[in-house]
Amino acid sequence: MGLIISSRYFNLPPSFTSFRNGAHQKAPMESPVVDALYLEAIEKARRDLRALIYSKNCAPIMLRLSWHDAGTYDVSTKTGGPNGSIRNEEEYKQESNKGLKIAIDLCEEVKKKNPKITYADLYQDSLASPEEGRLPDAKKGAKHLRDTFYRMGLSDKDIVALSGGHTLGKARLERSGFEGVWSKEPLKFGNSYFVELLKGEKEISDKKKEGQKEGLLKLPTDKALLEDPEFRRFVEKYAKDEAAFFKDYAESHKKLPELGFTPCSSSSASKAEAITSSKTEAKTCSILVQSAVGVAIAAAAAVAILGHFYKVRRKMK
Predict the structure, then answer these.
(1) Quick one: which of 143, 134, 162 has its CA closest to 245?
(2) Which superkingdom (predicted)?
(3) In the chain, which ranges are E strands?
(4) Average pLDDT for 212-223
(5) For residue 244, what is the DSSP state?
(6) Residues 6 or more apart from 205 whose CB is under 8 A from it?
(7) Partner of 242 for a Cys bridge, out of 150, 191, 217, 221, CB 3.0 to 4.6 A?
(8) How many C-beta atoms surround the C-beta of residue 21 within 10 A?
(9) Contact assessment for residue 19 and residue 288, using Cβ atoms and an 8 Å cutoff
């Protein structure tokens, strides 16, 4: 799995905001100088984030943080999305974001170690947080999932693939109203979420007949993936083919920090100038995006490495 690029907790150079979320664009600014020292600071911040995640075993909550920051995007109004507004008290105190202040505070540890990496200028603009209710409600079904994800411009495949993130971590009663884990090994990233979903159908039926308690957690939104024919075909695909899940998950997760991102375009008069300008802008955009560092980078790195070790350990058994 590739690393996910994000500007969520540490900034791209300031002019990056002119490329994303049109409703919140700032006045054009001069292109920043991305020198060797700046890139060195970026790499150090990345290493510190990865080390933090490994030492704290906090990949699940970091992954949840990156998703909840991005998951408020509205493709029709170009509002919300991965702009760091989740750092606002009014947003992280929303019902759906309970517990995420823990992850925000962990990010502050890395910020203190890397003073050269400043907060995104979006924070300095004090962007208003989106209204509550844009994130999925675990108590609802397939229609709600589609309404929520389609609003972001995502697809049925994205819905199911991203749901596979439940293979990591657990639900806590005080945060979500639910308690439990979705897989037997909640710190190993693989396709076990889908395997257990299908396996659980028969087990739940058998246990109900015998009067036993159900085992792994199954939220209404999890069950919706089995009940809806279009969702179910992806569940069955990923349960059979872990490599296909890894590929689709990486593609779907990569979309999250890019929600609202507008590729550079050229407005030059002549064709020759347009080609030259396009190449220059593309190079600038590439530098800006490659320079980004944030929670999703380290979280995705942790997920990828956990998945690698999981596969290695399976071969050793």
Answers:
(1) 162
(2) Eukaryota
(3) 170-171, 180-181
(4) 83
(5) H
(6) none
(7) 191
(8) 21
(9) yes
Give the count of alpha carbons within 13 A of 126, CB side only. 2
Query: Which tokens hold the place of 59?
Result: 């990949």
Where is 181: in which H helix or E strand?
A: strand 180-181
DSSP label at 27?
Answer: P
CB atoms within 10 A of CB 85: 23
Nearest alpha-carbon partner for 77 in 157, 153, 159, 158: 153
DSSP three-state, residue 170? strand
CA torsion angle 181 185 190 196 (round to 10): -60
Cα gap 184→94, rounded to integer Å: 30
| DSSP character string of 116-161 | TSPPPHHHHTTPPPPPTT-SPPTTS-HHHHHHHHHHTT--HHHHHH
- Residue 70 burial (C-beta neighbours within 10 Å; 0-12, 13-18, 19+): buried
- Phi-psi sector, 41: left (phi>0), alpha (psi -120 to 50), beta: alpha
pTM score of the predicted model: 0.73
pLDDT exceeds 60 at position 201: yes
Residue with the two structure tokens 């944030």: 294
- Which residues are CB-contacts of 256 (< 8 A; sequence separation ≥ 6)? 4, 66, 67, 70, 71, 82, 162, 296
- Residue whose token pair is 């001069």: 30
Q: CB under 8 Å to 155, separation ≥6 — which residues? A: 149
The pair of three-digit structure tokens given for residue 122, joined into one six-digit string: 């979006």
**Residues recognised as catalytic:** 68
| Secondary structure letter of residue 184 according to DSSP | S
- Give residue for tokens 């979903």: 197
pLDDT per position as a tens digit, 272-312:
454 444 444 444 444 343 333 344 444 555 555 555 555 55
8 Å CB contact between 69 and 82:
yes
CA distance linking residue 14 with residue 118, whole number of Å: 10
